[in-house]
Predict the 3D structure of the following.
Amino acid sequence: MREVLAALDARYDPALAESWDAVGLVCGDPDEPVGRVLFAVDPTTAVVDEVVATGADLLVTHHPLLLTPVHGVPGDDPKGRLVHRLIRAGAGLFVAHTNADRAPDSGVNDALATVLGLTGTVPLEPSTVDPRAGLGRVGELAEPRTLRAFAERVAAVLPATAGGVRVAGDPEREVRRVAVCGGSGGSLFASAAAAGADVLLTSDLRHHPVSEALEAGGPALCDVAHFASEWPWLPVAAEVLHRDLSGRVEVAVSRRRTDPWTWHEGSGGIPAGHSAG
Amino acid sequence: MREVLAALDARYDPALAESWDAVGLVCGDPDEPVGRVLFAVDPTTAVVDEVVATGADLLVTHHPLLLTPVHGVPGDDPKGRLVHRLIRAGAGLFVAHTNADRAPDSGVNDALATVLGLTGTVPLEPSTVDPRAGLGRVGELAEPRTLRAFAERVAAVLPATAGGVRVAGDPEREVRRVAVCGGSGGSLFASAAAAGADVLLTSDLRHHPVSEALEAGGPALCDVAHFASEWPWLPVAAEVLHRDLSGRVEVAVSRRRTDPWTWHEGSGGIPAGHSAG
Amino acid sequence: MREVLAALDARYDPALAESWDAVGLVCGDPDEPVGRVLFAVDPTTAVVDEVVATGADLLVTHHPLLLTPVHGVPGDDPKGRLVHRLIRAGAGLFVAHTNADRAPDSGVNDALATVLGLTGTVPLEPSTVDPRAGLGRVGELAEPRTLRAFAERVAAVLPATAGGVRVAGDPEREVRRVAVCGGSGGSLFASAAAAGADVLLTSDLRHHPVSEALEAGGPALCDVAHFASEWPWLPVAAEVLHRDLSGRVEVAVSRRRTDPWTWHEGSGGIPAGHSAG
Amino acid sequence: MREVLAALDARYDPALAESWDAVGLVCGDPDEPVGRVLFAVDPTTAVVDEVVATGADLLVTHHPLLLTPVHGVPGDDPKGRLVHRLIRAGAGLFVAHTNADRAPDSGVNDALATVLGLTGTVPLEPSTVDPRAGLGRVGELAEPRTLRAFAERVAAVLPATAGGVRVAGDPEREVRRVAVCGGSGGSLFASAAAAGADVLLTSDLRHHPVSEALEAGGPALCDVAHFASEWPWLPVAAEVLHRDLSGRVEVAVSRRRTDPWTWHEGSGGIPAGHSAG
Amino acid sequence: MREVLAALDARYDPALAESWDAVGLVCGDPDEPVGRVLFAVDPTTAVVDEVVATGADLLVTHHPLLLTPVHGVPGDDPKGRLVHRLIRAGAGLFVAHTNADRAPDSGVNDALATVLGLTGTVPLEPSTVDPRAGLGRVGELAEPRTLRAFAERVAAVLPATAGGVRVAGDPEREVRRVAVCGGSGGSLFASAAAAGADVLLTSDLRHHPVSEALEAGGPALCDVAHFASEWPWLPVAAEVLHRDLSGRVEVAVSRRRTDPWTWHEGSGGIPAGHSAG
Amino acid sequence: MREVLAALDARYDPALAESWDAVGLVCGDPDEPVGRVLFAVDPTTAVVDEVVATGADLLVTHHPLLLTPVHGVPGDDPKGRLVHRLIRAGAGLFVAHTNADRAPDSGVNDALATVLGLTGTVPLEPSTVDPRAGLGRVGELAEPRTLRAFAERVAAVLPATAGGVRVAGDPEREVRRVAVCGGSGGSLFASAAAAGADVLLTSDLRHHPVSEALEAGGPALCDVAHFASEWPWLPVAAEVLHRDLSGRVEVAVSRRRTDPWTWHEGSGGIPAGHSAG
């Protein structure tokens, strides 16, 4: 396992992680051998079921299991239960989170930019240490599209989720320059505007920042499932690990959709507007 | 205007507001007369257009214009521009925000509970001062429904929005006890579970809290547009003001949908799951 | 107005302001034309009366109207009322505060040093960015005077105020090197001592710091009205704006004395000293 | 000395002092006898000269010598030098500061109210523990006067100082109810207004709070020397100590005026107002 | 295991623990059966060896394994390795720390007081909730002894450690009233003095507090190994658990001495004192 | 005295002290002559007795008298009493604390390293300003010894104290590279490990850090009395002052042992280990 961890750290340098983040090995013994590595966005019960069922020796997830630090991993706590199951199954858990977001080339944001067909991609907020690393990415579509056509393409190339794609902006607006941020990227709106983006695609957008952004003018907004925005990284990370270790470990991407939403109900509700007196 | 403000403060006691909130009169002169009051969720450009077009003397919104305090209201700032337009039009702006959320009977959460048909409604987190006031509400449906049927009803009774309704949970789960929180109520999940709710309906839910909630078990989750969850309060507030002033002012509910999302693209994207090596 | 604001920002760079300060445009629309600009120390009711009476399009003050940030500018608040009056009169309000204190050449402290006849003037606490900018000034009188003669000159060249001039030190002490700080400059005593000043002239001095300064030795102290110490900047700023815009706007200095003290009662009270037992 | 300290603590309960204050014995040995006690506002060099010259065994001051706590009292520091001189002279130093401000009956504020002829005096901000104790005092003049006549009386009954008395308000305003606060009492303006005071007399008032107070309306303001506002306490405290100890110690009030200002220059300066262009 | 945990929580109420503490279940599944419980002061490698060797199902320690919270329990970290070993051995780890210190009757401090033969024992700093609970204990010896004789008894009744017993005070001082605090109790010196104790016995005492305590006068000090001061609790806790569960689980006290010091070298070093010039 | 203070400041630069420290002159007048200087670790009553008895004019201690700053030095406080006695005896007190710890060549840690026979000594945590200065020291023994032999040498070369020397580690471990830190140096364990030390010698070590250090592996630990670890500096400092001033002052090292522990009781107590049920 030590060799696998070194290969992952080389791609996703832990020094790139935010100070509040929790990356690296969560459980598992670096001295034990690893034959099979499974990649997933979230370390959920369903994903651990898959680890056990497929005999994986190491689970690599984007999201930390223990972002809030703990004084114990008791078996009657949902997260502690997963630690017990992994340790008993002899499987490790490794997290590459904001370091994978920021990493150049094979990171989360480059993977997202690639599936959207962006070129000339650079970080929205470059790292002061390595200008190829940093938060978000901004790049160009091969040719301009309407915002509507862009959104249709987003829906087509990202994994299907219950929530789908929400768009704020004029459907006929021309989109050429696209900013993206896997995960919760609402705070990058000002950077996207400064970078001349026509649209910012990210997830977990809330009413107030979106409302203020529209009032201020600037890029259109495209909101997708958090899971969907980060999923494109999984096959990339699996592929590079396989290659970096010259095929000495098997890799697989989890088949579980860890987006938490089950379904979506299109609202055809009552029209707003009412007057009295 | 002074009389109108007093009537609003009597219904929506400013002492109920959070310490960080910004409620009360934002602009306008309490000594001027008021003939017509317009109610809206957000003080946006479109809503101020409506104020000017309809000659309203006072705009009452749920959301503050200046939640982050300011050192000025210059005309080249989106919010400052609205202040200039309102002052020049002789119209005031009044905000009832977390005080309206918490207020008993004619507040935001009671209005939401009422349109969903809940009975026996009590606050999820009662105020220590007045047990009828507080955060969120929990009540009973007239008769149990499946989660799917509940979600269909939600979609039918709330204003139509681009994002519609997202649901996390088993569609066949029986729902009888319902917790609601207008606006961003994700932090009330534990209270909803403690209150024995089968589902929590609120808005602005993000990936991580929803994911953790599902792993921990407990209520299903139903996410609607922030705007849609608070809109039911507008006709209620308009009605009670009209009645409290014995019809001496005209009231109206804004016809603008201030939900910022323009449209929704159902995602039919690629299936998740991939394996290499 | 945009051109006027740019000229003011060029003279009084907002980047020189303290982090807690509130400089720039408070209200008014940069797209409207400006024919006449009025300069004053404080944005008080009397000064706004003068704006309205003289038809000024822009009021430039040294002190901020909204130093403590606000959630609204309601008409029943003294400051909100001024914002309403200015907006309705079509007049803007612009503040140059600690940036004007620090600015080189045509700033508040250089203006004060000039009326006192100082030469070879440099900042007491130079800015790390621009050594000609910074807090306070220190310079030399053309020829040495007694402290008494210096104080008489101060009283003669600054605007008359109720409080006049208070001096701590030996009236016969020779004064050659003079430190000044417009506004509340008590915290600059140590810098003035380190700069070899014979006297520090500033305002708003309080008992304890003055008492400790005298016990420690060092410069004499000269306390004038806050208003009086900053007033000399008004004609300077008016003049440079007029010149910077090649006379395309009219400028005027307010005739209102905004020092808040109405009159002074020389105390001839009882002698101290008493003994019992 | 122990008996004297106990008598002072009984009048000026240290529990009434602010948490940041530094009251009680600064130097001196409680086991040594005390024949003569000197009272002064400030522990300055001149006052310590008087202690040595008069052979006093204990100096009682209102202001702390070491309000900012120290790691040493070296002889080359102005304050350390006083400690050395007192210890070598066998004299102690005792401080009664905010506890004397707050104390009922024989405290600083009651003494000030008494010399101004106020009756029916109560604290402006009463202590929650003892309603007779607290910050400031408010009471009634025997009969109404104009503000000008009130200021003349203030100048007559307080010790003469260089700065004299400054007044903000209409000289013809009728004054009946008077709020006072010895020392720096600018923060009590709102309490004075709430108490219905026609004028607040205190010291160390600065431009901004006074300016804002005038814009908001409310009491007139009367500013005297910090020293002058607290001096009336000295004969009171000396008297009560003498009486409390049945005359077993001699008491005296220092003859030094510790107001730091040496003289005042009435400003006849240039008129404000200027216009160009 | 659930039943065992409930019995421990009943004796050592987690609500008594400090807010910074980390008590309760660290690992292990409450749904599994428990046949044998091992008690130890510290969860060290040697103690976990004993858990594995003796087939214990639950380890109860006084000190937390993860007092500083963690983002993972990786196998290459000393603490993570212990978690892996315990989980693989099917054994749980439970911590009763400051709740056991404070608990009445069968807590750490009562156990220490009992082995020293104290009677009439009460908390040094009683809990506001339960006056029988709290920090430290103070009680009376059956008859007075010299401090030397007291120290000899301490050495005789506590487990042998390399560091032994250090005493500060006159060996002939009479000791009757004894304050104790298991673990690091240096901060209780003032409470011990206030309680009239002749000696305070605790551990981990450092130079400066001891030095200041001696200068101030008050109780003598007796410093023992941290481990030794808490060990007496182990047989007590084992016994009460055995009894509370009516003998349904086997209990044992660890035979490992987890005091970290290996040996002690009596210093016969050079005499202090030296003079030059 | 001024010349003596200058010589001490030159050797022990106050700029090297920690920000929280309290170094320099505590009392005494720099203008008075100094004939005799006494050096001690702690400014205790016994040491001040020695100052008075030997007629020393200046006491130089390593530990501050007033580390916690004070508002006074009253004679009924243990520390205030010492200030009174020193001032009346005409003696000053000077402290060189963390500046003496960090100082190169003639500082506390170099003195400790020298008596232990270390060579090639460098700071464990070098100062960024002067690489020869810094926290702790690490160097090499002339030839390797067992840990037991090293501890015996420690006991032989440091002053005798009640507590002696405690060692954690295998007595047969070979020791060649030695890290030392006079005073409380437990926080330097990681630096000592990183520097490749076989043992860290320091004082005031507590149970938890020692226990964790042993579990993590790394250097052995050797704990001596705080006083003993710093005493070797006294003759060094006395000698260099004598030399720096060309013999113009007499110097002496205090003969008082200020280690607070009176005696040590070897514990032969009961064996640990117990089992029931």
Summary: The first helix of chain C runs from residue 2 to 11. Residues 177 and 197 of chain C are 5 Å apart (CA to CA). Chains C and F do not touch (no CB pair under 8 Å). The longest strand of chain C covers residues 134-146.
